[in-house]
Specification:
mainly alpha, 5 helices
Length: 140
C-alpha cells in the first residue's frame, strides 16, 4: 500500500455499536448453544428468516433500546458460559460439537473457543472505531 492508502480514513459503513452487540448475542448462541449442543435458536433469533435477511442481527438493532441490546447480549453470554461449563464437565476441550458442518465434520470445543476469541477481537476493533466516531473516546 502506498502513502495515500496508509493515510486514508473511511466512514462508509452501516455498522453500529448496537449492531455489534446484537450480532455478538447471535454469534454466542450459534456457537455455544446451536453448534456445540445442537439446541434450537433462542428468541429473538429463532423467528428470523435468515435466508431472506442474513444481516437481520445487524440492522434490526436500530429498533432496540440500549437496555434491550445489553440485556440480549449479557443473557447470551450467561447461557454460553453455562454451556461451556457443562461441555467441559462432559468431555473437555477436544469434544466435538453436536451439530456438524455441511461436510459432516464438526469443530471441537477448543476450536469454537478460539474462533470466538477471533470474533470478539475483530468486532472490538470495529467498536473502537465506532466509539471514537460517536464521542471521541477510544479503547485501551
Amino acid at each position: 500500500m502506498d502513502a495515500a492508502g496508509l493515510g486514508a480514513t473511511t466512514a462508509a459503513s452501516a455498522m453500529t455499536l448496537g449492531g455489534v452487540l446484537k450480532h455478538m448475542a447471535y454469534v454466542e448462541g450459534e456457537w455455544f448453544s446451536r453448534s456445540l449442543h445442537a439446541r434450537d435458536r433462542d428468541a429473538p433469533f429463532d423467528a428470523v428468516d435468515w435466508k431472506a435477511d442474513p444481516d437481520w442481527d445487524w440492522h434490526s438493532a436500530a429498533n432496540d433500546t440500549p437496555e434491550q441490546l445489553r440485556t440480549l447480549w449479557q443473557d447470551a453470554v450467561d447461557r454460553s458460559r453455562a454451556s461451556v461449563a457443562d461441555a467441559l464437565t462432559r468431555g473437555g476441550l477436544d469434544q466435538l460439537a453436536r451439530r456438524p458442518w455441511p461436510d459432516g465434520s464438526a469443530p471441537s470445543l477448543r476450536w469454537i473457543l478460539c474462533h470466538m476469541i477471533e470474533e470478539y477481537a475483530r468486532h472490538n476493533g470495529h467498536a473502537d472505531l465506532l466509539r471514537e466516531a460517536v464521542d471521541g473516546q477510544t479503547g485501551e
